UniProtKB/TrEMBL annotation:
SUPFAM superfamilies: Pentapeptide repeat-like (SSF141571). InterPro entries: 5peptide_repeat, Pentapeptide-BTB/POZ_domain. It comes from Romboutsia maritimum. This is Pentapeptide repeat-containing protein. The lineage of its organism: Bacteria, Bacillati, Bacillota, Clostridia, Peptostreptococcales.
Amino acid sequence: MINLRESKYDEEIFKDLKIDCKKCFGFCCVALYFSASEGFPMDKEAGETCINLNSDFSCAVHNNLRKNGLKGCTAYDCFGAGQKVAQVTYGGYDWKQTPELKNQMFDVFLVMRQLNEMLWYLTDALTFIQLSTTKDELNLMIKETKELTNLDAKSIMEIDIEKHRVKVNSILRQVNELVEKRVTSDKKVNLKNKKSLISGYDFIGANLTKTNLIGEDLAGALLIATNLSNTNLAGTNLIGADLRDADIRGANLADSMFITQSQVNTAKGDSNTKLPRALVRPFYWDK
């Protein structure tokens, strides 16, 4: 197997993109809409406080979320946007101390999460072996995006987020194409024992264990309850793919592209599932 990622990249580059709930003000428990049918405690509108949010912004049932069937809560990940808004944008002032800024804070959080998600993809792209010119472009885009996250609240609300996303997606596609070329030989070898993937995006409940998935484009694919156990997903583009209840036990996702903690949290894995070093293995996975 050809090496796709840099062997010695520093995991610290992901540090600010990982959640730190103790430094947040429970934004995800208030700012977001969620429903009981999706594994949350209740049906609630955006801006309404979750029934389990304590006065100190901690969760009253945090230790029993999975036991209580609250898979939506354990799956959600803000890419560190919560603590960024709380500690940097608003300098440690919470929405209870400044109720007049409550709605603005929630709106800023929603924008910040999108920016941090883009930063996650850009940073992940940076860990793959690639041309020096592409790496320079990535670093410039990371710098530009970080600068946006450090703006004041009013300026953040004025960001043309879709315009910026187009620029980010353009360079992500470049990296994806480079990785696809690098895995071509491995893909051909793997094809001897596997069948080719049928084009499409709806693989709900499908059994893909005997399918060659190396270097495939599964961006935005519906992989809900899909059997991916023991598959090799090296160089596979998983950006935006829905992995809820997907079986990735024994699967190799170490070199999968653009996979996030939230996706991993929703899937069913085990101790044999290989993940990128930047991701954390959920405690509730099979041993």
